[in-house]
User: What shape does this take?
Amino acid sequence: MRNENIFVTKPTLPPLDEFAPYLQQIWNNKVLTNGGPFHEQLEKELCEYLGVEHICLFTNGTLALVTALQALRITGEVITTPYSFVATSHSLLWNGIKPVFADIDRDTLNLDPAKIEAAITPQTTAIMPVHCYGHPCDIDAIQKIADNYNLKVIYDAAHAFGVECDSGSVLRHGDLSVLSFHATKVFNTFEGGAIICPDAKTKVRIDQLKNFGHVGEVTVVAPGINGKMSEFNAALGLLQLKYIDQALARRKRIDTAYRERLEGVKGIHCLKGAGEKIANYAYFPILVQADYPIRRDDLYQKLKDRGIHPRRYFYPLISDFPMYRGLPSAHRENLPVATASSQQILCLPIYPDLEISVVDEITRFIADQ
Assistant: This one.
């Protein structure tokens, strides 16, 4: 038995002594929020690191999704994935938009472009795919569909910080891409998020929407919300950014160790990367298939009993929750790949401080069932 619990992911904590000067500077500046110096600096440094031109910081990724839909004035129906965290589709409901679920690709677990096209109706205005586990969607196929049907594309890129495909940053695709900087993400500000913008005009509109729609002290032009990132969270982000490449290198080492040790274990399928040029190793998902000696849920419980806490991520499907399951597109016969995947998926622990000896323990336990 282990002396401590091992979770699927843990927040990366910066050295406390290095954070003290940031706190002192915030106190000296007497600016705590509303686009202060650290906020502006983090936007600049993230643009440089991610290879994008414009970014809007948010207090969390969920409010960023809600605002992205508002910024593009999306209405009607939006085609999205049932295989994601509920914030993806919740952002649609909060904007009075009808989610339409389409099935996923069995190899990548991202939206299947063929299923997207089949789900389009006269009420469809946009597509909201998810770069699941940080692996890029079929961005070219999705963009072709969007162009053919005059649809907007908003990518939920919560998992895709720093990921690059053959054409550069995956965040540059679609009309907007939305990041999460939650504590469990590859890059985090404890709580936070961002929208990648294609141009300065869009950034101005989004910055207005995240600040109640204000354009001046006495002028409000839109029903915006309070989505601003504080100086405290921005300072955390600046410190985290100093260590991101080191953290990614450690994640890659852990990913490689899992793959080597699980190769050949009957009934365990490790998802392959989806062709990304630069990966971020955000998660380590496996599929516990029918020829494994025990069921996925039994393995899940046995690992938990040993103090190792994986996640059935994503189970249940979004489409199975009460607020969605009445939709015609939510019926399981419409989503066979997503349904099967949600019943087999298990994400194993992966974070920079995870010791390879723990990976050894986890993989031996899985192999010995």
